[in-house]
Amino acid sequence: MTMTVQADQIDAGEIERFAGTLFEAGLATVELANVALGLRLGLYAALATGPCTPADLAGRAGIGARYAREWLEQQAAAGVVDVEDVSAGEEERRYLLSAEHGHVLLEPDSEAYMGALAEAAVAGATWLPLLKPAYRGGAGVPYAEFGVHDLQAAFSRPVFSSHLVQTWLPALPDVHAKLVSGKARVAEIGCGEGFAAVLMARSFPGVSVDGFDLDDASIAAARRAAVDAGVADRVRFEVADAAALDLAALDIRGVYDLVACFEMLHDASDPVGVLAAMRALRADGGTVLVVDERVAEQFTLPAEPIERLLYAFSTLHCLPVGLASQPSAATGTVIRPGTVRRYGRQAGFTSVDELPVEHPQFRLYLLGG
Q: Which residues of the chain have pLDDT under 50?
């Protein structure tokens, strides 16, 4: 496509600015790809054991020495690793990973962990062949075709580790008291690989948790996690569409003290059906909790960085997943508070209240009635 404009209509400064913006984005993308490479090869873990030359890194990580030198130089140029003596010979130069940078790269339970984002930058390019025909035809792409259940679990793990037990559940005093007593029964809808469900069971002895998710691979991983954590006697995972749960067959109508979904409502093709099922699963006096993205009340420019990131994931993943089943609400990742409230009312709830819990990425909604 060629644009025809008059020469005096072109703002040369804007051309330079926008080209620079895309250059910086491209640079960040390929540098994140190198971070992903380092994670996959265990290069940061090797560096964390102490300063090393290229030969040292090659020996520690089991890679070719020439690759080790090039990657180390690239990482130093990008500011990821430090160099003890820049003037030293290329083979004698010693590189080191600071404790702070190591924390960001090697601590998967930390909210500062960026390994999952690096992997997402690499994965996004592989989704383009799936997305081109979907965009052309207006159809969706099933979640399983993306192959991202491990990546999605890596994104949510730091948040659960830092907030679920510490601040989110205590924000529901009645629920928290039941959990502490060990007498509560919990259902998690869209449980993924089960990190939150297992964490609740480990944190509150005696509590039982049932997790439901559409993805076979995620449920298989969740079941392994429950066994590994020693809570498989109290945590059950089932492959199921929450919007179409056979409550009678499963004997689960009205039995849960807490029914929760964490960052999944925006992915659901039938979010109203999901919420209606959650309402039916809730016991008398029970609680329904929805946690989803913290975005502006309405479309606003310029968008905040978090909202920009969510839109980027929406176009590449969440909206196609939501469109995979028809009819679809086609929500997308940027699920605004008004949308959650509307879905809640349509599902039969009479109140949808935001809990006073601060988090830069998530809102917590308490649904009642």
A: none
